[in-house]
Each structure stands twice: as structure tokens, then as C-alpha cells.
Design a protein that fits this description.
binds ligand G3I; 13 helices; 14% strand; globular
Length: 380
């Protein structure tokens, strides 16, 4: 390779080495050399939508959707065909429902329930109590104030849709071992104002407001073969055990399953064992927010699609082996509308591909992986 003379040459070669290391580092980050789904194929037998294929095994399949996406006629038609259940991504959260302390805005939620009714879809409510997506005015300063807000919200919102929902995520992400409490509960405004009893209170209020809906405790980061995930699984199991022992009307655990293709390496073994422990409490289990982030995979579409599909199939094979799992919801249906576009963009600047359908609404290997997992699942 021709280059500058003497000292200059040595400096040039040193700079080249450093640059090379940087490029290697970037490539390693993008893992252009990786192909975790190599050799995997996802052939599917027969015809049928994901909704039909899940139902054939006694399972419910659906996805999250925002009311703004109903304006996309092609997407809405695909959603109505492929899904048996719908979850509003934001419209049943405090931030969307509660523009001011004394008022409610049900327009988004009502639009989605109307769409679901016309399409014969069931609806999951998400979520009555969360530490996020709270309106700016939400600032209770006393336990009595917080209790009154909680009661009024649950009675009004769950009461409005009583008898029409498959299930409610009554509380969302209430366990956080990193916050250091002995009960591993998340340090949230709800906990600070009402104490640990707010969780049971929320379930009792929801059961009174809608006796028909399954009442779900929804949690994240339960899926990995990792000490943090194991610590969280133990804490969630202890909480569920306490709630069941106290006859709190909790009917199911929601396992969000926001997966990442590069961290699936540990596999779902620990998760599978945990689901058996939850089922032993007499609880149903729902996969509530399944998607597979691909930002750490190479930019190559075929490589990413194969790797994402492999994670879908491997995780669902383990999860659906537990008969207490009755439904699977992906957190979106098409890459055209995924939260991961903003939350976990691909470093190469290419569109992310975490869901069963691509941005042009074409089925991907991930669709096949879901179909194959449903076909292989024990019938409910
Ligand atoms: O609709 C408005 C739009 O009019 C406005 O122009 C835009 C820019 O401000 O915001 C839009 O609202 C956004 C909404 O998503 C709809 O896209 C909110 O800002 C944004 O905060 C909201 O984020 C949602 C987030 O929950 C908070 O509610 C994500 O879409 C949603 O995917 C995410 O879902 C959560 C689950 O509820 C719980 N588990 C984790 C999961 C991912 O974070």
C-alpha cells in the first residue's frame, strides 16, 4: 500500500490501525457478521389467518393498535382479518382519557371498541393503574386524595365498558426489584401515597366495576435467562402468591414479552419454568406485548427477518407449552406502526422489522413463526 515517508508513514499506519479498530467496532456493533437465524426455515402448512390458526388450538391471537391507525384503511382491514383481539396502545391510559381532573375523553377508546365490535374482535383494556402516561395534573398529595382518584377512575372507566372487555390490565409494571424494597414493588406515586395495598384495592375496584372481565397483573422483563429477570420473576411470583392467598380477584398474569433478537441467546427455559409456577397458583397467563427488536442485528433484511422469526418461534414454543397460556398479543401487527421505530431504531438507519407484517403489509417469516408456534401448541 503506498503511503507517506518515514515518521509520516508510521503515523499514517497508526492512524489507519485506529480507524480500522473503530470500523471493526462499528461492524461489531452492527454485527454484520451475525446471522443467528442461519439455516432456519419457517414453512407453514395449509391456509388461514393468525386469528384462525390460534383459534384452531383454543388460543386467542391479536395485537395492539392506536385509534389513529384506523384511518389507514388497508391496515385496518388487515387487522380485522388477522386478529381476534385488540388492545388500545394508548387510548385507555390516564394520559389519553383524562384531559382534566373532572373530565374524561373516551373518543379514542370508543372508536377502537366500535371497530372491534364491527369486526368481531375481543378487546383487552390497558391499563387502569400505571406509573407512566399520567396527565400533568395528576399530583395527589394525600392518601385520601389518591384513593379517591383511583376509585373514581376505575369505577368510571371500567364501569363504562363493563361486560364488553375480554380482560383488563388492572395494574402495569408494579414490580421493580432495583428499587430496593423488600417486597420489590416499584417506587411509584401510587405506592408512595397508598402503600402496597393499592394493588389489591385496584383489583377489588375493577372486579366491582366489571365482574365479567378477566383481571390481569401485567409485567415486563420476565423473559430473559438473566439474574435481573430471575429476580423479577421471583418477586412477581411472591406478589401473586400474596394476592391469591388474600383472595384478591386477580385472574391472570400478563407477560409482556418485549424481546430483543440479540438477547434471546439464553433461551426461554427459565421463563417456561416460571410460567408453570404461575399456573400452579391457579392463574391464567397471557402474552400481552410480544415483539422482537432487531436493532442489534445486521441491516440485511433476510438475515434480520430470519433471526426475528427464530426468536418468535423458539419463545412461543416454550411459552405455549404451558396450557395456562391462553392468548398471544403482539405489540402491533405491522412494522408500519411499531413503537420500536422511535424507541429502538436500527443504527444503520434502516426501518426496523419487529412484527409479523412488513411496512407494505406483507407477511414476513415472523408471521410464519407465529403460525408454526400455534400449530405446534397443545390444544386448549
Ligand atoms: O397521539 C400523539 C400525537 O398526536 C402526537 O403528535 C405525538 C407526539 O407527541 O404523540 C402521540 O402520542 C404518543 C402515543 O404513544 C401514540 O403514538 C405519545 O406521545 C407516546 O408517549 C405514546 O407512547 C406509548 C407508550 O406506551 C406510553 O403510553 C407507546 O406508543 C406504546 O407503545 C407504549 O406501550 C407500552 C405499554 O403501554 C406498557 N409496556 C411497555 C410498552 C412500550 O413502552
Amino acid at each position: 500500500m503506498s503511503g507517506p515517508d518515514g515518521i509520516g508513514r508510521r503515523a499514517f499506519l497508526a492512524a489507519l490501525g485506529a480507524a480500522g479498530a473503530a470500523v471493526a467496532g462499528a461492524a461489531a456493533l452492527l454485527r454484520e457478521d451475525r446471522d443467528p437465524g442461519a439455516g432456519r426455515a419457517f414453512p407453514v402448512q395449509g391456509a388461514g389467518t393468525l386469528r384462525e390458526r390460534a383459534a384452531a388450538r383454543g388460543l386467542l391471537y391479536g395485537a395492539a393498535i392506536d385509534s389513529s391507525q384506523l384511518r389507514d384503511a388497508g391496515f385496518a382491514a388487515l387487522f380485522a382479518r388477522e386478529c381476534g383481539v385488540l388492545v388500545p396502545g394508548t387510548e385507555l391510559k390516564w394520559l389519553a382519557l383524562r384531559p382534566a381532573p373532572g373530565s374524561y375523553d373516551f373518543r379514542g377508546a370508543d372508536a377502537l371498541l366500535g371497530f372491534a365490535g364491527a369486526a368481531g374482535l375481543q378487546v383487552r383494556g390497558h391499563t387502569l393503574v400505571w406509573h407512566q402516561a399520567l396527565p400533568a395534573w395528576f399530583a395527589p398529595t394525600s392518601a385520601s386524595g389518591a384513593e379517591r382518584m383511583l376509585r373514581e377512575h376505575v369505577e368510571t372507566v371500567a364501569g363504562r365498558y363493563a361486560g364488553r372487555l375480554h380482560s383488563w390490565d388492572v395494574v402495569n409494571e408494579v414490580v421493580e426489584p432495583a428499587h430496593g424494597r423488600a417486597d420489590a414493588l416499584r417506587d411509584s406515586p401510587w405506592l408512595r401515597l397508598l402503600g402496597p395495598g393499592y394493588i389489591a384495592t385496584a383489583f377489588h375496584l375493577a372486579a366491582a366495576a366489571d365482574p365479567k372481565a378477566r383481571l390481569v397483573l401485567n409485567e415486563n422483563w420476565l423473559e430473559l435467562d438473566h439474574p435481573d429477570s430471575e429476580r423479577k420473576r421471583r418477586a412477581v411470583l411472591r406478589l401473586l402468591d400474596r394476592l391469591v392467598a388474600a383472595s384478591v380477584p386477580v385472574h391472570a398474569l400478563g407477560v409482556q414479552c418485549h424481546l430483543r433478537a440479540e438477547r434471546a441467546a439464553g433461551g426461554p427455559g427459565r421463563l417456561r419454568a416460571f410460567l408453570g409456577e404461575v399456573a400452579a397458583l391457579g392463574l391464567e397467563i397471557l402474552v400481552t406485548e410480544l415483539d422482537v427488536a432487531d436493532a442489534a442485528l445486521p441491516a440485511d433484511v433476510a438475515v434480520r427477518d430470519r433471526a426475528v422469526a427464530a426468536v418468535y418461534e423458539d419463545y412461543l414454543a416454550a411459552v405455549l407449552d404451558e396450557r395456562a397460556v391462553t392468548g398471544v398479543v403482539t405489540w402491533g401487527l405491522s412494522d408500519r406502526y411499531t413503537w420500536l421505530t422511535g424507541h429502538a431504531p436500527h443504527p444503520a438507519g434502516v426501518p426496523v422489522r419487529p412484527l409479523p407484517f412488513d411496512r407494505e403489509l406483507r407477511p414476513k417469516p415472523a408471521w410464519n413463526a407465529l403460525a408454526r408456534a400455534f400449530a405446534a401448541a397443545p390444544r386448549r
